[in-house]
Amino acid sequence: MSSELFHRPITELAAALESKKLSAVELTQAVVARTKAVDGRVKAFNSFDEAAALAQAAASDARRAAGQARGALDGIPIGLKDVIAVAGQPLTASSKMLAHFVSPYDATVTQKLKQAGAVLWGRLNLDEFAMGSSTENSANGPTSNPWDLTRVPGGSSGGSAAALAAGEAMATLGSDTGGSIRQPAALCGVVGLKPTYGLVSRYGLIAFASSLDQIGPFARTVEDAAIVLGAIAGHDERDSTSFQTDIPDYRAELGSRRGPWRLGVPKEYFGEGLDPEIGAAVEQTIAFYRGQGCEIKEVSLPHTRYCLDTYYVIATAEASSNLARYDGIRYGHRSKNATDAVDLYFQSRAEGFGPEVKRRIILGTYVLSSGYYDAYYLRAQKVRTLIRQDFLNAFREVDALITPTSPMPAFKIGEKADPLALYLCDIYTIGVNLAGLPGISVPCGFTRSGLPIGAQIIGQPFQEAQMLAIARTYEQAHDWHNRQPQLR
Amino acid sequence: MSSAPQLDIDHVARLARLALTPEEKAKFAQQLGDVLHHIEQLAKVDVSHVEPTAHASPVYNVWVDDVAQPGLPVELALKNAPAQRQNMIVVPKVVE
After folding, report:
1. B68 phi and psi angles, rounded to 5 deg
2. What is each CA distance from A295 to A262, A398, A440, B37, in whole angstroms?
3. Shortest CB distance from A383 goes to which of B17, B24, B45?
4. Total Cβ atoms within 10 A of residue A50
5. What is the CATH number of the domain that holds B37?
6. pLDDT for res A4
7. A9 vs A303: CA distance, rounded Å
8. What chain A residue is nearest to B58 in terms of C-alpha separation?
9. Does pLDDT of B4 surpass 50?
């Protein structure tokens, strides 16, 4: 299995490692070589540490030789978005503010992946501080979409999606605040899963909007996503919003849940602004489930039209508060041009943050400021209640919802200069974050020009096992996920 | 919520402790004006009997025993400090 190891799913590689047809060092060397060969074009990585990865791979092989292998992820190279802390490694958020920051500790998900034996491979590019939908807002420059290098990979976890699609990692982690895992997964033709708020610890994740952020996996197949999710989920007392719940064996549950399910199609997600080719591909996905005996029911989420505005009030408000910590004092960029101690804050922040981060800090500060708090922030939190109720009402009638993931396929780098036009990329993913629900994007076709299309399945709170089973039923009957980009 | 939102960019940038160039001020004021105009439609929603949602997790209060735990060692905590001396962070003078 020497050729194109780097495009195989984890399930196959784990079997090869298990039967000793492949070593973790060989696999890691293949991924390192692939990364060196293609990342000059894809630009998914902010940095990588080859020696550290090979040392972890050698340790994995030693464990296996001693009969102490730790499961399906032992020896598998997994890349992390550059907002997830790995002790002793850079943590930049693709921002000049943290250009020289080195993590003093591991995020909980990092610890869990280490415990599972994974080989941590590289720091992946993103929109600065995860603010964006195209990975163009990075201090390191944009990442390219492996399916068309002149196009964006989506964002904010664009590096995580592109690295996986290009064979530069076997799975990756991203974070999703308004669609930042699912939208780039759709644009790059891979599986991306945003867990229920509270399922995965946020300890060691650079905070953007704390009531919306969740860490989740990108993977080649639904089964791979189930394996990675199982490794990172679970209660953590270091994140007070993490939820005490039993974590099922998501991979095993895939085999035992077979439907048919009751699936809802929210009519508000198929209106104006949806690319017709994407609409047609998602309609065919729905038709597939109908053919499988699923009951398909049109549902309404009447407050959908307010999701975008609610999100941009709440997310920017939380961001302005979270990013107040970057003041040039304790860590991060410190200006050399300040006139006094207070000016040090103003100048360090001016020099350290890029334009989109500044815009969002200004908007967030405004909606929280005296005289505007009730009109914007408090009102948005109330509309959020209505948005969540819409979803919970729909789940009285159906098990899950099916929608497009993104209204448009990957667009050209530099094409969307207007912030508002970019914000519209997230119209189908944002509601899930506001309501705290799990969502998964699975490849469901290609446009005539060869760009990937994703369908989103939205599950009930903490019902990831069912959501994954629904997604896998589709994947098993299709081969979109087996296609590989040509990096042109 | 007023029908014509006025974002006083100087005032807000001061609250955010963020120095902006005149070009940034002009550009952000225009772009954020557009965004605020879009956000105005939240005023149409009847929220008179609706409780706010701070986050969607079904967790309300979390209690932990008040027991000392090991934290970051000083060297690690200060590792990323822009300037340090004798295990302390050096800052510009704040009192005369």
Report:
1. -65, 135
2. 5, 9, 20, 41
3. B45
4. 14
5. 1.10.20.60
6. 87
7. 39
8. A243
9. no
Judged by CB atoms closer than 8 Å, whether chains meet at B16 and A353 is answered as: no
In a domain, B33, yes or no: yes
Per annotation, catalytic residue among A134, A157, A180, A441: A180
Span B54-94, pLDDT tens digits: 988 777 788 888 999 898 999 999 999 999 999 999 999 88
- Interatomic CA distance for residues A246 and A156, integer angstroms: 30
Residues contacting residue A429 through CB under 8 Å, at least 6 positions apart: A176, A178, A179, A182, A183, A194, A405, A406, A439, A456
User: For residue range A11-35, what is the model confidence (pLDDT) as tens digits?
Assistant: 999 999 999 999 999 999 999 999 9
Active-site residue flag, A81:
yes
Q: What letter represents residue B29's amino acid?
A: A
- Over residues A238-249, mean pLDDT: 94
Could you tell me the residue range of the domain that residue B8 belongs to?
A: 1-46
Flag whether B52 is in a domain. no
**Main-chain phi, psi angles of A151, to 5 degrees:** -110, 160
The residue-averaged pLDDT of A318-332 equals 97
pLDDT at A1: 43
CATH of domain A5-264+397-482: 3.90.1300.10
